[in-house]
Amino acid sequence: MTDAAPPRPDETYSYLGPAGTFTEAALKQVPEAAGKHWRSVNNVGEAFADVTSGRSIAAMIAIENSVDGGVSATQDALATVPGLRIAGEYLVPVNFVLVARPGTALDEVHVVNAHPVAYAQSRRWLEANLPDHGHIPATSNVQAAASLFESSNADAAVAPPGIVDHLDVEVLAEQIGDNPNAVTRFVLVTRKRAIPPRTGADKTSLIVELPDDEPGSLLAMLEQFSTRGVNLSLLESRPIGDELGRYRFVVDLDGHVEDERVADALLGLRRSSPNVIFLGSYPRADRREVEYHSKYDDEIFIEARDWLRGILSGEPEGD
Known about the structure:
By secondary structure, the chain is an alpha/beta fold. The protein folds into three domains: about 10-95 and about 180-195, Periplasmic binding protein-like II (D-Maltodextrin-Binding Protein, domain 2), CATH 3.40.190.10; about 95-175, Periplasmic binding protein-like II (D-Maltodextrin-Binding Protein, domain 2); about 195-319, Alpha-Beta Plaits (2-Layer Sandwich), CATH 3.30.70.260. The chain is about 25% helix and about 30% strand. The protein contains nine helices and 15 strands. It has helices at about 20-25, 45-55, 70-80, 115-120, 125-130, 140-145, 215-225, 260-270, 300-315, and strands spanning about 10-15, 35-40, 60-65, 70, 85-95, 95-100, 110-115, 135, 155-160, 170-175, 185-190, 200-210, 230-240, 245-255, 275-285. The strands form three sheets. Strands 1, 2, 3, 4, 5 and 11 form a six-stranded mixed beta sheet that branches. A five-stranded mixed beta sheet has the order 8-7-9-6-10. α1 links the parallel β1 (about 10-15) and β2. The mean pLDDT is about 90.
């Protein structure tokens, strides 16, 4: 009997595991990943290392939550790991259950294992129902529950609702998330340079550094978008790390790099910023068409360039 061939890197997708995580739920939304090998990893760094080393063709990573905002580990990695592109975004509704080993009662819970993000999103419920509880951080939502059967001091865990399909745990409470409408946004990260064609319902992601720590530098950056009618759906600052007071900005904007207004804004950023990282243009997860004023139509930008070209070439005006 021969050993099975190892999975091919071009048919391998990495995700924050183990099975049953919200990240896996996001990867299930990728048609190209169906039937391929899914590689479970422990953290963002390992997922990106899989992609950059060629072990995986892509990795699914959480980048933003509607309650807590941007995921700093993902944002910082995208800023410092070269050669990565976002190929698509996916939304997953998020809620949690409190689980324990079979036979455990709620009043017996004194220590809770939970991923820091899950803990933050269920903290009000925990403090109201378990006011004296302690918290042990977990590397993932599923690992929080799995640790109950390992060398853990936790009595219960905050986990995804589908955890009962993977582990022999007992649900002590359902819907413990503080916000029933919470959604996490995931992105599929790859090394492929090809940009998905524009659909009219697109998003572009960037990381931009300011040239100097001086009054007006942030306003100058924002004007590159506002003067071209480009709406921002995300703007978050992250420390560059080389000294105090130096920040980079994570930017999501409505539109595609092939849109004239977006391309012109990127040219303005390139002229004014010491470092602009283009992370990709891709279809919006909600497929909502981008709205903007007609004065920012592609034809307006094209006509302006043609007008200037005519002046420089000496063409008679009005021809």
